[in-house]
Amino acid sequence: MATIVFVIPDQCTLLDLAGPVQVFEEARAQGAPVELAYVQYQAQAGSSAGLAFATVPHFSTMMLHAGDLVLVPGLADAALPTTADDYPEFYAWLQALPERGVRLCSVCTGAFLLGAAGLLNGRSCTTHWQQVGALQQAFPESRVLADRLFVHDRGVYSSAGIAAGIDLALALVEERFGPLLTYKVSRRLVLYYRRNGLHGQVSVYLDHRNHLHPGVHLAQDYLLDHLAENPTLEVLAEVANSSPRNLTRLFRQHTGLTINDFSTKIRTEAARTLVATSSLTRQAIAERCGFRDPRQLQRLLGRAA
Amino acid sequence: MATIVFVIPDQCTLLDLAGPVQVFEEARAQGAPVELAYVQYQAQAGSSAGLAFATVPHFSTMMLHAGDLVLVPGLADAALPTTADDYPEFYAWLQALPERGVRLCSVCTGAFLLGAAGLLNGRSCTTHWQQVGALQQAFPESRVLADRLFVHDRGVYSSAGIAAGIDLALALVEERFGPLLTYKVSRRLVLYYRRNGLHGQVSVYLDHRNHLHPGVHLAQDYLLDHLAENPTLEVLAEVANSSPRNLTRLFRQHTGLTINDFSTKIRTEAARTLVATSSLTRQAIAERCGFRDPRQLQRLLGRAA
């Protein structure tokens, strides 16, 4: 069980905090072994929009272990730190985390807290586009990158402005729990999942899911849950409460793919994962993934490679 | 000055609340004449993710006027109301708002609160895709639409799941304060602005802005702020801290348009607005929008119509 700790600075940007909270809370609800915790380091934890939080525990009460994650949201520009002078114990606590295997993430101007802890020295990072110059100036030993949704450098993640914290949180869920859970979370939150421009991995689970049609989602879910059976159009239409003809039209309209192409994509991807990670025979893999025989599978693996 | 009131139910979905709060808070920071307020109607105001709020005023203390807006976020499924029995005074308060000119919005399962107040009877609405059936069943006189980001029916707005509250809030900002402020808000929040599928209006200010490149944004901002001058490529390159050649390449890559096409689009749109809303002569409009003469303007208006 990993703990995801949200640091709440006073004058916290509410959406910086709430976006990642909701992503991890939804991952937890979907079965991911995480629990959420909130800490503060100042006398109070207010938000920049005038809504204050009830008492939040002090950071020093939190015991963290390797695999845990600490997330620092941004705060009002006027409150941005550039040194550790005001809260030396808090910054020392932050600074010791990466070497203990605890990962750190900042959203937006939360990067200034990582900088004050010395964690940006020698690392690449990013922040809100309006603060890129100020962050570089405050922490000259860091390498501040513009035009990125998020950046990862040796256990320290930073993300761009405000809503980019949602994108970073989704990327962290994907990194830890895989693309299938990530698509379930983004679908539940009705989120458009933006990938980092430099994020190499393409996901068959997430691609073609940035639409809103509930019937098409039902058909896609059913296909994912019944790879071996390779369900017929009639079965899918029933699942989606639609006619075969209408589902065919809707599926293409909302996903950009035919049902058959989507099905082949996800079954090929599942087979590729089994080839790479299991000791199953090609025959067994073909059966599990709904292929006629190992030759059909092999042809598709070759073509998609 | 309009008041935007956020109702905080106990077990509130944090992102349902925080998304619209941040959008309106940012609109306020950019000069929109709104103020934000928070109210509760139960004994406490917690969030579904375990983070509680400090004391929030009771709804009955809030004096509202025509033009104000009340937003109701969603809450944990187990806490969804289907009748007004538990908080009759609160629901009576909600119910009286539209006839007094106060608009109401729900995010996600917040639609159940509008339903319990009788506000969905005879109206079209939407909610989280997993609750579309339950909402229709609980409030049979409503018309629950699936597959929508948000729906507006005579002063009552409702939106789909969780993150769709951000889209609704942006649409409300656009409706009230125009597309230019909306693009500034979404840019500051680093948000991808998703429009409703049925949202007819296309905005030259928002289109071609769903990218992250700071230099290109600077050039676009400068063009918007200097319509009459129709700035040269050299001027824009300096503004964007780039070379003319590099800016030309980046602009096209990130916006999908040449600088010249983008400039023509925004100047034509500004001119069209002036033709429709002012008593200026065509000559004066052409000058203000950086056209050589009224004939050039007229040709472009005709072509784009």
Uncertain regions spanning at least 5 consecutive residues of chain A: 197-202
CATH-defined superfamily of the largest domain in chain A: Class I glutamine amidotransferase (GATase) domain
Per CATH, the architecture of the largest domain in chain A is 3-Layer(aba) Sandwich
User: What is the number of beta strands of chain A?
Assistant: 8
Strands of the biggest beta sheet of chain A: in what spatial order?
2-1-3-4-8-7
* SSE series of chain A: EHEEHEHEHEEEHHHHHHH
Helix content, binned percent of chain A: 40-55%
CATH class (first level) name of the largest domain in chain A: Alpha Beta
- Radius of gyration of chain A from CA coordinates: 22 Å
Biggest sheet features of chain A: 6 strands, mixed
* Spatial separation of the terminal alpha carbons of chain A: 36 Å
Envelope shape of chain A: elongated
Question: How many separate domains of chain A?
Answer: 2
CATH topology of the largest domain in chain A: Rossmann fold
GO molecular function (chains A, B): DNA-binding transcription factor activity; sequence-specific DNA binding
Keywords (chains A, B): Transcription, Transcription regulation
Pfam families (chains A, B): DJ-1_PfpI (PF01965), HTH_18 (PF12833)
Domain HTH araC/xylS-type (chains A, B): 217-305
